[in-house]
Structures are given as structure tokens and as C-alpha cells.
Amino acid sequence: MKMSAQSAEFIIIGAGLSGLYAAHLLTERGADWCLLEARQTAGGRILSVAAPGGACAQRFDLGPSWYWPEYQGDLARLIAQRQLETFPQYETGNMVVERSNATPPQHMPGYRSVPQSWRLAGGMAALLEGLQKNLDAERMHFGQVVQELQIVGGKVAVTTVGENGELTVWQANKVLLALPPRLAIERLHFAPALPEPLRREWSATPTWMAPHAKYLAVYEKPFWRVQGLSGEGRSAVGPLQEIHDASLPDGIGALFGFLGMPARLRRSMSAQTLQEACRRQLGRLFGASATTPVAEFFQDWAENPFTSTTLDEDAAMEHVSTPVAAPAHGPWAGKIVGIGSEWATAFPGYLAGAVESATIGVESIR
User: What is the pLDDT of residue 53?
Assistant: First the structure.
């Protein structure tokens, strides 16, 4: 099997927001870096899909959708620096609540986000694209699945498998892990082994949103608004448990929801069956017009091997204590540091957490 070798001062594993922002910070510092990503494109858990016949500005998020500029200042500044168009999440009107199959859905005053949640025109992928514009494309390597990190002669040797099965060994002084802690433990082999307390802590850290699935329906216009509805819904019947307005500023309507059934149960059903059930539910909540979207999308993050692990399938949607980001002692001390969003202290799991973790991780490099 063909094997090649590459080297850089720093290697970033993962091209989600934390990985791209770390590359941005290292570029500002004038450092020698390269980025390795298993997928063929950047994004990680950010996924923005285009409306039918739409341009990049007409995209919807199947991953993270919101940010809160009033208290996520670093992320807000990054978005402002890229001059990205933003708009507030629509929350005007009543929400729809479905308590059981025995009673019809009810309309009642909805929840208003405090502080206000905001979205990006073009979806959150617009932020990734804004970062990538100023990065050296030759330093970013996609379709590179990391297999092993090994300490060799005082450096870290990172072995990857490419899309054609070719092996590459990348050498660096330090590696920045821009992926969830649990995923790092399950998918990467460390030689020598990581300290057992650290390994247990990383393995016990749930990957934010990994067990979940999103359904999104696109309409010619947000017809529910003229009915005095905000597009927000809650259901104890399902399959969608929590629903929100995902419409665009140009008038294209959309509703999205989180499926309330466990990943193991979803796996026993086809995507077509799940989408049909989602359409029927939207019809119950918002009327017959909701059963005929012009397009629909379904994303099950639990089925993505570069996001979710078997341990994530039954995890609850909750934040836990931030794990230690780097070994303090032993052979791996000073060699690796976690910069994925779960390692953030203020906003673990959120987009703002990715910016926070990347900043702290790069600042730790001296």
C-alpha cells in the first residue's frame, strides 16, 4: 500500500467551526499548520442546504441554526467582521401545542427568546465560507480519515487513510483536536495510550446534538403567520417534539422540528416513513397547506459516523461539565489539546463554544 509523508508545525483534526477558526488564528500568528478533515467538505455539525432553485443566500440549517449576540460576544464579533447578514428568529404570534391524540392541538401564547436569537442569511455555512476565504486551501486536506496519533521522536505522527485507501503520515509538534471528545476516544488510536482518567472523562462527555434528527419542510411562503401563528410548536404525540419557524427574510417559508424518538427507534424506520409522519403532524398543527411542502429535508445526526458514536445514541440533550482539554502529565502533555465545542467552559456544545475552545487552545500554544 502506498504511503506518503507530510509535516507541519501544527495539525488541526477537524474542519468544523472550531477547526477553521483555529486555522484562522494560527494564520494570523504566521504559524505553519495543516488541517485534516474526514469529510469531503468543511462544516462538521454545521449543514446548510439550499432551497429549490435557490442561491447560497437561500439556505436552511439542518445543524445549529441560532446564535445569541447579546451574550455570545466573540462569535457576534466574528460574524460582524465577516460582514454577514443576520436576522432575528421569527417568534411573533401563538404557538401550537399538541398534548395527546385525544385532544386537538391548542393555540397559546408562545415563548420569546431572551435574549433574542438570531440567524445568518445563507445559513451558518456562510460563516464557514467567510473563514475559508482567508485560509490557504493547500493547507486543508479533505477526505482524510485519521486512524492513529503516535509519539515518534518527540513529535506526533498522525496517520490518515484517504478516499482511495492511501496512507499518509503527518508529523507535527502539536495536534489540535477539533472534534468531540467522545469521538476522539472512539475513532482515534493513541500510542502510547492516553492517561486513563482523561480517556474516561472524554468518553463520558456526550456529543452535543449527536443523538438527534431534524426534519425541515419548505413552502412558497410562511402561510401560518397570517393565521397569527409563530411557527413554533410543542408536541407530546410526535414524531416532531419541538418545532420552529425556519423561514427566510425573502419570503420563502419553512418549518423545522426535532424528532422526539430515540435514534434506535428511528433506525427501524425508513426516512420516507419518518418524513410522511412529519408531514401529517404539521398538517394537524398548521393546517392542510403544511402537508404539501415544495421541498423537504431530513438529517439524522446519529447516523453520521464522523459526528455520533454508539454511546451518543441514548444520550439526553443536556450539557455536562467541561472535560479537561489536555493531559497535564505524561508523554502526551504539551502534544495535544482539545478545541472542539464540548471543551468550552462558557458555551459547551454551541457555536460560540467552538470559537471559545479554539481561542483557548491556540492561546495555549507558546
Answer: 74
